[in-house]
Write a structure and sequence with these properties.
This protein has 416 residues and is an alpha+beta fold. The chain contains 15 helices and 11 strands.
Length: 416
């Protein structure tokens, strides 16, 4: 059970405090409710670019990292389709340094042509290195637009193409900042060796005077139901063939989310999971095979990806996967198998609660979707899942007309 207290400043900044006296540190997590789904189709990659720009200095602090490191702190950030998340840990004695740093860049980021150019080049290089010049790096750039026709999940967090970042103007960047990086669009969590009274005092001191800004209005198009199978075949200079299947699934707030997540664990949650045991270990159809979900706020994807064994054709590999999916659709999961994956989920949850940073991140996410209390309900949701529920969901999503198949051929095998 993770206890917490919360309050909201007049400017709209939501704050959650979790006190844990067993640690000498405090974790500060600030989540901004903006991700790649909030971008324009011709101006993508901005949320991720901002993750970098936020470390480029603010009005009164030329460099973010230096004073934090001097105070014994560490920090990082990440961006995904739905949120941008900044986090740090710092000794409790130096906590005010964190408030000073984060409030200054929320209030007034230092926009300079030099900072924009430096971070632009960093992101462009990351784009090229991780997505264009790395084996299998472009998989998501092929799979997402195959699965999504209208929803902005059709592009990666890094962006659709390099030119969108290369051509980002100062006016574009400032407009994105003014729209999304405001107290009313943020959640701050303080977890660790801190009391509520001190948290309130420091938050009022450093954040209360920041203008709230308007809560962004979103008009994100809804992806229509997929009615026919989609396929794409590419040839790349990679060592082995790879096969990817993507199925549309429910959104993060759906009552079916937890069962869909557990479904992926049963198929591919370790050496005893169905896909690994049957198709890798016993039948040797694949060298590696995995199943996982994206977990997006809007309707996401259920993925199955693997590398077929030598001398196994794509047709044989696909047939083997569909056979396992059909079996799942036609027979109930045995009680023992279901209980085993539920136990794994519960143990992972318990281990995750050891870290104050993990707790801060989870609290920030759940509060951002208006359900902070869910942090203590997660295991209950998984425990309540029935075999019949899993079968129903499998029957709904594992259909040919809901499938997106990417055939990723290794170049040296095309002449076989």
């Amino acid at each position: 059970m993770i206890g917490y207290k919360n309050f909201t400043l007049k400017n709209g900044l939501k704050v959650i405090v979790h006190t844990d006296k067993s640690t000498p540190i405090v974790a500060m997590n600030i989540l901004y409710k903006v991700g790649s789904r909030d971008e324009e189709p011709d101006k993508t990659g901005f949320a991720h670019l901002f993750e970098h720009l936020m470390f480029g200095g603010s009005a009164h602090i030329p460099t973010y990292d230096t004073p934090l490191e001097k105070a014994g702190g560490e920090n990082n950030a990440f961006t995904n389709s739905d949120i941008t998340n900044y986090y740090l840990t710092i000794p409790k004695e130096n906590l005010e340094t964190a408030f000073w740093l984060e409030s200054d860049r929320m209030l007034n980021l230092a926009f300079t042509e030099k900072s924009l150019e430096v971070q632009r080049q960093v992101v462009v290089e990351e784009f090229k290195q991780n997505y264009l010049n790395q084996p299998y790096g472009d998989v998501w750039m092929l799979l997402k637009p195959l699965a999504y026709q209208v929803h902005p999940y059709q592009w990666n967090t890094i962006g659709k193409e390099v030119s969108h970042i290369e051509n980002a103007s100062m006016e574009d960047v400032k407009g994105f900042y003014r729209k999304y990086y405001k107290p009313a669009n943020a959640v701050m969590v303080l977890a660790g060796n801190i009391e509520l009274d001190n948290a309130k005092k420091l938050t009022e001191k450093w954040f209360a005077d920041i203008p709230s800004g308007e809560t962004p209005t979103r008009n994100i198009p809804i992806e229509p139901p997929q009615k026919e199978a989609r396929r794409l075949e590419v040839v790349r200079n990679v060592p082995k063939n790879a096969l990817y299947l993507a199925f549309h699934m429910c959104d993060r707030l759906s009552t079916d989310y937890y069962a869909t997540d557990l479904l992926s664990d049963i198929l591919s949650g370790g050496a005893s999971s169905r896909l690994y045991r049957k198709l890798v270990k016993e039948q040797a159809v694949f060298n590696e095979l995995d199943a996982y979900i994206t977990g997006d706020l809007d309707a996401g994807l259920f993925l199955i990806s693997g590398k077929p064994a030598e001398n196994v054709s794509f047709e044989q590999a696909e047939e083997a996967i569909w056979k396992e999916l059909d079996e799942f659709k036609n027979t109930l999961v045995p009680d023992l198998e279901l209980e085993k994956v539920k136990n794994k989920v519960e143990s992972a949850s318990i281990f995750g609660e050891v870290s104050v940073l993990n707790k801060a991140m989870s609290l920030a996410f759940f509060e951002s979707i208006g359900q902070a209390d869910q942090i203590n309900e997660e295991v209950k949701h998984y425990r309540a899942i029935t075999a019949a529920q899993l079968q129903r969901i499998a029957q709904q999503i594992f259909t040919p007309e809901n499938s997106n198949t990417l055939i990723y051929k290794a170049k040296q095998t095309t002449d076989d």
